[in-house]
């Protein structure tokens, strides 16, 4: 079989978005030598499960922290690692049209550098999360946005997590789907050059072929980044972002209850 890209490497569309309002409630710790945000469920609402969060190219920015807090409010202990080590893409580009913040910025070199680190760091981080925060009966889920999607697929090809989800993915090849062993939710935008209609349909064909449980959310009229970086002053973009989050939570609630 071939191994062509289905969700292409992140590009200019990954730099588009708005910052959401709110104060994150979590804390930080160092896990496997990587700074990690920890969002704790409210007392009395803990479901006993752990959610691994893999960020997009914006890293541990306010929107992502608030999303993690949202998962925590639903009962999950959420941990998200900063595999960019304080070096998110927004340090060099404020948005996709910006060429003034750092005119010499090499986006391709930046992606290569951080992908190499993340590929090595994530398995060690997951192992230490399990050792420090897991119990014998703990169940795990994982969610990734954009850059984080391959790490979701990698975990779903292993034995740790029970279910996973990603939104507006990047960096996915056919093998990521062929290797899946656990249920996957795909939260997708109609307008997305990294995961376009043809690639999305091919991914679904693979999931049907290997008979892994899956669900697809497909939102009309929104672009790559909708689940994290939409304009909350736009009622539809707010709705779509909330539906993505709610759908992923319900997906995890079901599979981790089985």
Automatic annotation (TrEMBL):
InterPro entries: AB_hydrolase_fold, Dienelactn_hydro. Gene3D superfamilies: alpha/beta hydrolase (3.40.50.1820). Residues 35-253 form the Dienelactone hydrolase domain. The keyword Glycoprotein does not apply. One of its GO terms (molecular function) is hydrolase activity. Keywords: Hydrolase. This is Related to dienelactone hydrolase.
């Amino acid at each position: 079989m071939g191994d062509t890209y289905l969700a292409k490497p992140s590009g200019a569309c990954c730099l588009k978005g708005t910052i959401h309002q709110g104060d994150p409630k979590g804390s930080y710790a160092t896990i496997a030598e990587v700074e990690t945000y920890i969002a704790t469920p409210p007392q009395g609402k803990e479901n006993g499960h752990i959610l691994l969060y893999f960020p997009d190219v914006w890293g541990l920015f306010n929107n992502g922290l608030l999303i993690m807090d949202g998962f925590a409010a639903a009962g999950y202990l959420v941990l998200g690692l900063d595999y960019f080590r304080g070096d998110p893409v927004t340090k060099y580009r404020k948005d996709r049209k910006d060429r003034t913040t750092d005119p010499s910025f090499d986006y391709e070199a930046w992606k290569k550098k951080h992908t190499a680190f993340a590929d090595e760091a994530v398995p060690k981080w997951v192992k230490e999360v399990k050792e420090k925060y897991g119990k014998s009966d703990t169940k795990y889920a994982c969610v990734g946005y954009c850059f984080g999607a391959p790490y979701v697929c990698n975990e779903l090809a292993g034995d740790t997590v029970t279910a996973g989800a990603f939104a507006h993915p990047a960096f996915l090849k056919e093998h990521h789907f062929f290797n899946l062993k656990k249920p996957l939710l795909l939260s997708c935008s109609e307008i997305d050059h990294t995961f376009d209609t043809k690639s999305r349909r091919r991914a679904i064909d693979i999931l049907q072929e290997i008979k892994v449980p899956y669900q697809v959310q497909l939102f009309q009229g929104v672009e790559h980044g909708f689940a994290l970086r939409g304009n909350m002053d736009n009622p539809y973009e707010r709705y779509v972002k909330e539906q993505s989050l709610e759908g992923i939570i319900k997906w995890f609630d079901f599979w981790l209850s089985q």
